[in-house]
Automatic annotation (TrEMBL):
It comes from the Bacteria. It is an enzyme of class 1 (oxidoreductase). The keyword Chloroplast does not apply. CDD domains: ACT_3PGDH-xct, PGDH_4. This is D-3-phosphoglycerate dehydrogenase. Residues 457-529 form the ACT domain. It comes from Tigheibacillus jepli. Catalyzes the reversible oxidation of 3-phospho-D-glycerate to 3-phosphonooxypyruvate, the first step of the phosphorylated L-serine biosynthesis pathway. Also catalyzes the reversible oxidation of 2-hydroxyglutarate to 2-oxoglutarate.
């Protein structure tokens, strides 16, 4: 099978070699598609790679009938409708590490351009003017740099600013005293940073709660003569408020690499001499472009080959070691979910996943997602996957509970008990991973069994009476159904009982009806794995 991959923004040729050299990947570079052309093209592709130029809207995702993965060769995914991708079961991956240095270096270059008026002076000289008085700058040594967002790039900026002998203060909701000390920066609230800094640089993602994080109120409490740098995302700073603050001489100057609307040809901030700007060049170095292209190419190839993506944006990221431990449980979880879904025809209202034994030592949500995928598969088919399983369950008003009790493994090393509640009542099955032998279903409701979840299974609820097994065997024989294995269990003598048969082929409706017609048989369910 060959996967078709569309590269819709310019990407390092060297960086996408891992995909181009892979015989299973068919890569098409079309880097100047209009939004309409993208809508036309996208149904052909299994994977899409973009930088920040292409906007992957809900409409694009709705047209992308085959799309499995979107790769963002860079950090910010604000040009991709992540919710729409999740709803459609499309994984979004990014390349969060490859351009950190370049973006930090660009922020420093912008900061220094700003402090020494380099772009303005350069422009003036190009106009054949030798003006030395107009471009008096500000020394950085001893000035305070306020960093809003001390993540990967913010931290690298802090190290570089310290190299310039600046004092650094940072605000980040995840910044602890210990971490600030380790990096060698002061820390405080956003207000502390805004009030005390001579230069302020933002390095947060653009999210609902960071849109206009720096606004008119923020400028009001800043020092007069403050300098502002934004090499993160347009929209984190309210551009109107920044314009007004510069005109009012509250802000001495701003260095901007990013804008609320890009390309920002007509942005009025560009008319101000106090503003230095670049057209979103933070990651535009040979090294960064190669790094992010390599990272995203590897992740796409890995994912399309059936492995787990390393940098998913809409799935929990799992380390290789953790994944190694969890992966064997995926098959068990999916089969158990599938099995249980065949025990009722009613809508699922509630799903409870109880983990016991060794597995409780791990973060089990990835296993739960797969179990839920298994449960919903009967009605949603291939539309449901681990990306959208939780979303689809929520859309269907299904409540999910996940519990871990190490000691409840009932003698097994590990046990996953799955329970669903419907209008009809509760249904439950439990499974274990037998060392070296793979997944086993070990409970169906109150009954004990030992069944490999594969092939064709017939589950019969009946009354515990002499002769039932014989009648059932006879009937299946008449219908030319060969029984491969059989398990029976009962609640008590003469009470409720089950038979779990492995048969050699799918049971047709007439055989099921004939079984159901036997007076001792209460219910017949078939499960085809
Ligand atoms: N100009 C360019 O070409 C480039 C821009 N970027 C942008 O730079 C930004 C930072 O990227 P990274 O450092 O890699 O991301 P990151 O995820 O490592 O760091 C972001 C930090 O912002 C913090 N944060 C979130 N909300 C906050 C808030 N309300 N106030 C303060 N801090 C908050 C987070 O806790 C996190 O530590 C992103 O917006 C990214 O898209 C990244 C690369 C190149
Ligand atoms: O792709 C680019 O050049 C922009 C990089 C960027 O903004 C990011 O990685 O967030």
């Amino acid at each position: 099978m060959t996967f078709r991959i569309l590269v819709a923004d310019p990407l390092s040729e060297e960086g996408i070699k891992p995909l181009k050299c892979n015989p299973k990947m068919d890569v098409t570079m079309q880097t100047s598609l209009s939004p309409e052309e993208l809508l036309e093209e996208i149904p052909k592709y299994d994977a899409l790679i973009v930088r920040s130029q292409t906007t992957v809207t809900r409409k694009v995702i709705e047209h992308a009938k085959k799309l499995k993965i979107i790769g963002r060769a860079g950090v910010g995914t604000d040009n991709i409708d992540i919710d729409a991708a999740t709803e459609h079961g499309i994984v979004v991956v990014n390349a969060p590490n490859g351009n950190t240095n370049s973006a930090a270096e660009h922020a420093m270059a912008m900061l220094m351009s700003l402090s020494r008026n380099i772009p303005q002076a350069y422009y003036s000289l190009k106009q054949r003017q030798w003006d030395r008085k107009k471009f008096i700058g500000t020394e950085l040594k001893g000035k305070k740099l306020g960093i809003v967002g001390l993540g990967r790039i913010g931290t690298e900026v802090a190290y570089r600013a310290k190299g310039q002998r600046m004092k650094v203060i940072a605000y980040d909701p995840f910044l602890t005293e210990e971490k600030a000390e380790k990096i060698g920066v002061g820390y405080g609230t956003l207000e502390d940073v805004l009030r005390s800094a001579d230069f302020i640089t933002v390095h947060t993602p653009l999210l609902k709660n960071t849109r206009h994080l720096i606004n008119a109120d923020s400028f009001a409490i800043m020092k007069t003569g403050v300098h502002i740098i934004n090499c993160a995302r347009g929209g984190i700073i309210d551009e109107e408020a920044l314009y007004d603050a510069i005109v009012a001489k509250k802000v001495a100057g701003a260095a901007l690499d990013v804008f609320e609307n890009e390309p920002a040809i007509d942005n009025k901030l560009l008319t101000l001499p106090e503003v230095v700007a670049t057209p979103h060049l933070g990651a535009s170095t040979v090294e960064a472009q190669e790094n992010v292209a390599i990272d995203v190419s590897h992740d796409i190839a890995r994912f399309l080959n059936g492995a787990v993506a390393e940098n998913p944006v809409n799935l929990p990221a799992i380390s290789n070691e953790h994944m190694g431990k969890l992966k064997p449980y995926f098959t068990l979880a999916e089969k158990l979910g599938e099995f249980l879904s065949y025990l009722t025809d009613d809508a699922i209202e509630e799903i409870t996943l109880n983990y016991a034994g060794d597995i409780t030592e791990y973060e089990v949500t990835p296993v739960s997602r797969i179990a839920i995928k298994g449960l919903l598969k009967k009605h949603l088919g291939t539309h449901v996957n681990e990306v959208n399983a939780l979303y689809l369950a929520e859309k269907k008003d299904i409540t999910i509970h996940e519990n871990k009790t190490k000691s409840a493994a009932e003698g097994f090393t590990n046990l996953l008990r799955l329970e669903i509640k419907t209008a009809e009542g509760k249904f439950c099955a439990a499974g274990t991973l037998l060392n070296g032998l793979g997944p086993r279903i070990v409970h169906v409701g109150e009954f004990h069994v030992d069944v490999t979840p594969e092939g064709h299974i017939v589950l019969i609820h009946h009354r515990d009476q002499p002769g039932v097994i014989g009648k059932m065997g006879n009937l299946l024989g008449k219908h030319h159904i060969n029984i491969a294995t059989m398990q029976v269990d009962r609640s008590d003598a003469g009470g409720n009982a089950i038979m779990m048969l492995k048969v050699d082929r799918h049971l047709k409706q007439e055989s099921i009806d004939a079984l159901k017609a036997l007076p001792e048989i209460q219910d017949v369910r078939t499960i085809d794995f």
